[in-house]
Every structure is written in C-alpha cells, then in structure tokens.
Amino acid sequence: MSMINIMCMANSPLKQVLDSLLVQYGVVESCEQVNTDSETAVVNVTYSSKDQARQALDKLNGFQLENFVLKVGYIPDEMAAQQNPPQQPRGRRGFGHRGSSRQGSPGSGSKQKPCDLPLRLLVPTQFVGAIIGKEGATIRNITKQTQSKIDVHRKENAGAAEKSITILSTPEGTSAACKSILEIMHKEAQDIKFTEEIPLKILAHNNFVGRLIGKEGRNLKKIEQDTDTKITISPLQELTLYNPERTITVKGNVETCAKAEEEIMKKIRESYENDIASMNLQAHLIPGLNLNALGLFPPTSGMPPPTSGPPSAMTPPYTQFE
C-alpha cells in the first residue's frame, strides 16, 4: 500500500466526487479526512500500490476543483505505516475524522516515548549546589529515579541571580524530576533560613504562551483554580532577539506547584505537537521542501519551528539544551 494526501477546500464537493475521481488511478484502500481548518481540509488516500499512488499524485496535483487547485503530496511508506498501523481494522472506505485512539491512547499498551519538548526551569543560584549535591550525587539520583536527562546550566550567565535547568523525559518523568527539585529547594530554604517565597519558574517559548493563556485568560485561570496556585507570566517587553522565552511564575506549596507544572506543560506540549504536525503536513504538501535547510529545526533544539510572531521568535529557542 502507498499513501498520498490532498489539500482541498473544506466545503468542496470532493466528498461527492471522490470515488469517481480517485478510482481512476487504482484501488483505493482507504480515504480519510485528517485535518480541517476554516478554509481547507486535508485528506489521506491509501492506494493498494506505490505506482497507483504516484499516478494519482501526478494527475491530481494541480487539478482544479470548483476554482480551487488541489495540492497533493506523497507520504513515504514508513510514515504511512505509522499513520495506518496494520493491526488496526479498517472500516468502509470514505471520509472520516481520525480519532485520538490511534496513538498515545490510554490502555494502548505502548510504552510512552520521551517528549521532544524539555521542561525549562529557573532556580535561585544559591540553591544550585543543593540540587546538584556533593560530587553530583543528588542530581544523579533524581536522574535515575525519574528516568530523565537533566542539565543544570550553572556556568552560564555568571553572577546571575537565577540559573536555568533543562529536564528531558516523559511527561511523568519530567513532573517527578520537577517536584524533586522543588522539594530540595524548600528543604534548603529551611536549612539556610531563606525567608523569601520560592515559586516555581518555568521558561516557555513565546510561541506557546498565548495558547497556554487561552482566550480571555481562561486556560490560565482554570489551572489556577484547579491547582490552588497564583500564576503570572513575564511581559512581552522582556523578550529579546536572543531570548524568546517568557517566564511563567507559579506561587504555592510544593504539591500545588507540582500539579500546576503538569497542567501548564500539558498545554504547552499540545501546542508543540500541533505545530510539529502542521509543519510535517506542509512538508508533504510542498514537494522538495527541506525544513532542515530552512533552519527551522536547529540540531540542538527541542522545539518546533516558530510559525509566527515577532522577529525574536525566529531565534532557535532552546539552543542551551544539548
């Protein structure tokens, strides 16, 4: 089997003429709508052979349908296999919306992979020593227990009041590591009689912050209510060409801050995954597009390509993470 995808108008008559249009080029194994925005829809079409799919690609790319020119891209077999697991039975041929059960669904039995998006924290410099521990023992223990990769950037920004920490793991491992770091800071604060409040500070690329906040701040308000925390976000004016990250400050105790981290990162990961899916789709629909050549995926970056925003957003976000 081999797959192509077609971009068409969302309200086009493609559904009605699909059979007569596509079966001219071979046996259609399946056809499903995988994405719809306000104006366009994307359809995945699986043919029984690669030759049939390529013939359909050649004939349909540029085909005019009700004043809209179809854009057709070829999906490599390995990606088609990921999108259409062989063990999943197929229903009748025709348009259908892809369900969330295809991948990452609870009870699927598949081991969750580490997320490509790291958690970035800001911690007071005076607590970095306690987080690392004697000869690195504490940070190694956290790394082992949470199955995480943790980088403490203590040598960067000499003299700064805060240092950044990058955590890469599954969402569960990331949250466990974050909570362990919070517990260490609160214990150290008691030992050294540190009187100031110790908030949780999360760094997030500006491209994601708007979606985290939500319309009229609803998403952020809900997280505050659900976790009993107070959350503030640094202003846009603090962004620079070399720093496209904003600081999300969460105030509460260890338990409530840890819960807020889970909810905040859940929203940010959703934005990240949507952006990656969107860029992958564009890559298929524009033959010859090389995203790496465009510099949208820096080798050391754990972030998606910026889709819009000020010039500062074009700077590779997590260049510190290696």
Automatic annotation (TrEMBL):
It is found in: Cytoplasm, P-body; Cytoplasm, Stress granule. SUPFAM superfamilies: Eukaryotic type KH-domain (KH-domain type I) (SSF54791), RNA-binding domain, RBD (SSF54928). The keyword Repeat applies. GO terms for cellular component: cytoplasmic stress granule; P-body. The keyword Lyase does not apply. PANTHER family: KH DOMAIN CONTAINING RNA BINDING PROTEIN. Belongs to the RRM IMP/VICKZ family. This is K Homology domain-containing protein. It comes from Diceros bicornis minor. The lineage of its organism: Eukaryota, Metazoa, Chordata, Craniata, Vertebrata.
